[in-house]
Amino acid sequence: MSNFKIREIQPDDNQQVAKVVREVLVEMGVPKVGTAYEDKSLDNMYGYYNNPGMQYFVVEEDGRIIGCAGIGPLPGEAGVCELQKMYFLPQARGRGIGAVMMETCLDFARKSGYKKCYLETMPYMQHAQKLYARTGFKPLDGPMGETGHYNCTVWMIKELAPRPPKSPRPPKGE
Fold first, then answer.
1. Phi/psi at 168 (nearest 5 deg)?
2. CA atoms of 73 and 52, how far apart (whole Å)
3. Are 14 and 65 a contacting pair, CB within 8 Å?
4. Exposed/middle/buried for 77, CB within 10 Å: 0-12, 13-18, 19+?
5. What is the Rg, in whole angstroms, of the alpha carbon atoms belonging to the chain?
6. pTM
7. Cα dihedral sign, 75-10-136-130
8. How many angstroms separate the CA atoms of 75 and 147, rounded?
9. Mean pLDDT in order along the chain per 10 residues (174 residues)
10. Cα–Cα distance, 107 to 125 (Å, whole number)
């Protein structure tokens, strides 16, 4: 039984979040330049995401942050958000946490009025790309917007149709 919870980032989470992101990037062999590793926002994610149309979420388990992801506007593209800084420590992988986090982020994006969600990743992050594809992201031939992540060479987009309302369950016995 899993006891993780996904919640909005809090100011006290900044140090743990920066550590998770940098640890995963180093583990994956991602260049430190032209990627999230060097983003100025990384050391104050709460402050950076404390703006309209932006939210950052953390996965907490046993009082420790084991994953994170956020949504923010894609610079230079009206109506398009970006799935940003989605990273999970090894103990969070393969447990369905990524799918739950993805839906949490996409629900926020829809509620915020975004029409599309964009993301960038690295070609060798195959597990992440499979999750994105299962969630409905489609590959793009080139980058969108002005992220500054010139070393990320896989680009994907998803249309954010409103979620249909859940149909009520019929009463038992019918």
1. -65, 145
2. 9
3. no
4. middle
5. 16
6. 0.86
7. positive
8. 7
9. 88 95 84 61 92 97 96 95 94 94 97 96 86 95 80 89 65 57
10. 24
